[in-house]
Amino acid sequence: MSTWGDVKNFKHFLPRLLELAIEHRDEFLDLAVVFGKLRCAHWQSWPPREVACVDDYLRAYWVYQLKLEIDSPQSDAIDTVLCAEGNALESVKPLLTAWLAEESISAKKHLAAFVIGNDDYLLSKHKLSNAFWDFGARPHGEVLRWLRSQDVLAYLGNAELPEEFAPAKHQLEAVRAALEETAT
């Protein structure tokens, strides 16, 4: 679609690409590119059954990623997935809602790592740090509004996090204040 083939070819390889996104995400597959090709292929205009399959996959993939354990607050795993899904979806609100509904410590650690990994950019540029974000698109704005929400503050604030993840609580407060300034 951008170097070789068309939508028909992409659809042919898509099941294997999505399988690789689960099995070997960080080894040789650029998730933002693969998921971004879904938008290029106008997947939401495909036959309803195909649209439902892709949508179900993206939602299930998100929940699967939220539940994966992380050991470091420097992990960018969930940042990568959210950005990639933001490239495929018109709206990431359902993903953000699912995040706050997930009560696992892993999901809370992912949020802490997301805040820690993005705080410098959010404080200085009022953008997320992943270069694959379309900064003018709806998903990016939805994430910024979500980070300002009281729900996110309560979710992270009430989390019992390991010591190395705990600074995210204070960083989120600073990020919220900076984003609030630009929103007004």
Residue fraction in strands: under 5%
- The coarse silhouette is globular
Strands, total number:
0
Fraction of residues in H or I helices = 55-70%
Provide the number of structural domains: 1
SSE ordering: HHHHHHHHH
Low-pLDDT ranges: none
Distance from N terminus to C terminus (CA atoms, Å) equals 40 Å
Rg, Å, rounded? 17 Å
Q: Quick check: average pLDDT?
A: 93
Largest sheet data: none
In terms of structural class, how would the helical and strand content be classed? mainly alpha
Task: Tally the helices.
Answer: 9
Features:
mainly alpha; globular; 184 residues; single chain
Q: Gist?
A:
With 184 residues, the chain is mainly alpha-helical. The protein has helices spanning 7-23, 31-40, 48-67, 77-88, 93-101, 105-124, 138-148, 150-157, 167-183.
Task: Describe the protein.
- The chain has 184 residues and is mostly helical.
- It has one domain (7-183).
- Helices cover 67% and strands 0% of the residues.
- It is built from nine helices and no strands.
- The chain has helices spanning 7-23, 31-40, 48-67, 77-88, 93-101, 105-124, 138-148, 150-157, 167-183.
- Helix 2 runs parallel beside helix 4, helix 3 packs parallel to helix 5 and helix 7 (138-148) crosses helix 9.
- It is globular, with a radius of gyration of 17 Å.
- The termini are far apart.
